[in-house]
Write a structure and sequence with these properties.
The structure is a single chain. Helix 10 (258-270) runs parallel beside helix 11 (289-297) and helix 17 (436-444) runs antiparallel to helix 18 (451-468). This protein is an alpha/beta fold. Helix content is 39%, strand content 15%. The strands form four sheets. It has a six-stranded parallel β-sheet with strand order 2-1-3-4-5-6, with helices on both faces. A six-stranded parallel β-sheet has the order 7-10-11-12-13-14. Bound molecules: cobalamin and iron/sulfur cluster (SF4). Residues 202, 204-206, 209, 211-212, 252-253, 282, 306 line the site of iron/sulfur cluster. Cobalamin (B12) binds next to helix 1, strand 3, strand 4 and helix 4.
Length: 524
């Protein structure tokens, strides 16, 4: 069979990273089938185009995966494919929770021929085999012989053939930035972020999160050896392509078992498998100095921290009382001391939020080492405890918000502010955290660091700005570049002519200056 795996675009931004599920299911497909991948965020297609593609490529089976925010597009695409007579299987977190919606058993139209519930590592081969025989079932659940739910072990993790997968669509280097980036060091012609998982599951059960329900509170890990080998494979590819590559460890809480994470990081270092990496780790686990040392030594550059709120009452409300706002600054300083920076994620529209929450949050953020703050709204995703609580209280204003998806829009009314006020807070957060002044300040705050670090924070800030203010066309980019011309000019000048590097004060209290060296200019 010719199988197409498709992930829809989110309709707002371009994807910075491919979706792991596609590569994983491709690797788990029984031999003898050809599997094609389309990620809509890198290769946007509308319904007519995808239907044409399915006909032209003589596709026999399509698998579609989607998060809640992309599900409306996923259904439209599925409808267009099914109209060509090709069967569609859907999987992922949304249809796992609402299989009846996808199968048209809730009174609405049917979108999928079959639905794979939960983790499909073990059911996917069975789905393919059933499709070959023309015996596709409606629902596939990961269960054992006795019918009990079974979470796949990650001990026998498949080898994803990264050395040969076509990743052209995921090059993140904008062509206009070539001249500047070439100065920074070798190999900046391509830059890709690759998703790698080292484990699954998080037992913390934050009220708004689907992870504890979906992956279960049983935490499972791959072997260190299998993760290390995957990193070595990716490193070899980057070397061969003379390109740059970073890994996103997509584990929900990469350090959920600190002892195991340390052992993995030690093995990565021992094998020389260090690549630059990003991971999600909750703030409470970053108290451990040795862990943070190992993060830095193994290539960790950015840590995504779900801070959510600076108000302990809000955190308690959403079952995230383990976050202690009082220690956020200390945690970030601990990381920054090792040149590791944080993507700090905040949620507005929580029940104890009042107007001005964005400025109150930003006034703290400004005192922290430079990072990448991101702002979202409390969103009741289906089947989460949050959804159930708001539904029971009659507080949902858009009960099936995913069917009329609007980016950055609430689906319930917070207790102490209006929906419009909450939207305005998010806008304020993005506008002020990513203004030209804020970008310049972030770059300047790293004045004692090599040029590579400052370019890195500047480019990262520009990209993150695009989450709320998408820069989809050339004109939008030109505008952003014009607004930030002073900072860009400063960085280009330094890349081309070198600079007087400002070093920390020496013991005599004198400021020492020296010319930038080639090694400094080549970054980290
Ligand atoms: C990495 C990640 C991201 C990345 C981007 C996605 C990417 N390119 O990989 C980033 C950081 C950008 C991101 C952003 C967001 N994310 Co996110 N993200 C994840 C994360 C941590 C890992 C995804 C992953 O690769 N998992 C590992 C793979 C193996 O699991 P999987 O995708 O679920 O696939 C398995 C099964 O679901 C199934 N399956 C999946 N698809 C299909 C398709 C078929 C045909 C079949 C048969 C089976 C199947 O088989 C797979 C193997 O078992 C998950 C949490 C998690 N652990 O999954 C959240 C998660 C997917 N994100 C979530 C959310 C809410 C978001 C945001 C909306 C957050 C926000 N408020 O802004 C944004 C939206 C992004 C967008 N593009 O619009 C939710 C989605 C919940 C939901 N019901 O939709 C999750 C589950 C986390 C959570 N807090 O609940 N995310
Ligand atoms: S710590 Fe993160 S992954 Fe774990 S339940 Fe909370 S939000 Fe979800």
């Amino acid at each position: 069979m010719r199988i197409l795996l498709y992930n829809p675009d989110n309709g707002v931004t371009r994807n910075f990273m491919p979706h792991l599920w596609m590569f994983l299911l491709q690797s788990l497909t029984p031999a003898g089938h050809e599997v094609l991948l389309i990620d809509g965020n890198a290769k946007p297609m509308d319904e007519a185009q995808i239907a044409q593609y399915v006909r032209d490529e003589k596709i026999d089976l399509v698998g579609i995966g989607a998060m809640t925010r992309m599900i409306a597009k996923a259904y439209r695409i599925a409808d267009a494919i099914r109209a060509t007579g090709v069967k569609v299987v859907m999987g992922g977190p949304h249809v796992t929770e609402l299989a009846d919606e996808a199968l048209g058993r809730d009174g609405g139209p049917r979108h999928a021929d079959a639905v794979a519930l939960g983790e499909a590592d073990e059911t996917w081969p069975q789905i393919v085999n059933d499709a070959v025989r023309g015996e596709l079932k409606e629902i596939y659940s990961p269960v054992d012989e006795t019918g009990k739910e079974r979470k796949p072990s990650l001990k026998q993790y498949p080898v994803i053939p990264w050395q040969s997968i076509d990743l052209e669509q995921f090059n993140l280097v904008p062509k206009a930035a070539f001249p500047l980036l070439k100065k920074v060091g070798e190999g900046w012609g391509t830059f890709r972020i690759i998703p790698v998982e080292s484990g699954r599951g998080c037992p913390y059960g934050c009220e708004f999160c689907t992870v504890t329900g979906f992956f279960g509170d049983s935490i499972r890990f791959r072997t260190n050896e299998s993760v290390v080998n995957e990193l070595l494979l990716l490193k070899a590819r980057a070397r061969k392509e003379k390109g740059q590559l970073a890994v996103f460890f997509i584990d929900d809480n990469f350090a959920i078992n600190v002892k195991r994470t340390k052992s993995l990081l030690r093995d990565i270092i021992a094998a020389g498998a260090q690549v630059h990496w990003v991971a999600q780790i909750s703030a409470n686990l970053l108290r451990d100095e040795e862990l943070v040392d190992l993060i830095a030594a193994s290539g960790g550059k950015w840590v995504f921290i779900g801070m959510e709120s600076i108000d302990p009452a809000n955190l308690k409300d959403v079952n995230k009382g383990f976050n202690k706002p009082g220690e956020y600054a200390e945690v970030l300083e601990r990381l920054a001391k090792r040149n590791v920076y944080a993507i700090t994620s905040f949620i507005f529209g929580m029940d104890n939020d009042t107007t001005g929450v964005a400025e109150r949050t930003l006034s703290q953020v400004r005192t922290w080492p430079p990072g990448l703050p991101i702002f979202g709204l409390l969103t009741p995703l289906p089947a989460t405890p949050l959804y159930k609580r708001l539904e029971a209280a009659g507080r949902l204003t858009r009960v099936k918000h995913w069917q009329e998806f609007i980016p950055f829009a609430m689906a319930h009314t917070p207790l102490k502010m209006s929906i419009e006020e909450a939207h305005a807070e998010v806008k304020y957060g993005w506008a002020h955290a990513y203004s030209p002044e804020a970008l310049a300040q972030a770059v300047d705050s790293l004045d004692d660091q090599p040029l590579g670090y400052r370019i890195n924070i500047f480019l990262a800030r520009l990209c993150f700005r695009g989450i709320y203010f998408p820069m989809m066309g050339k004109l939008a980019w030109v505008k952003v570049v014009a607004q930030n011309r002073v900072t860009i000019f400063k960085l280009v000048k330094e890349a081309v002519f070198g600079r007087k590097v400002r070093r920390p004060r020496d013991p005599e209290g004198e400021v020492v200056y020296e010319e930038a060296t080639a090694s400094e200019a080549s970054g980290d």
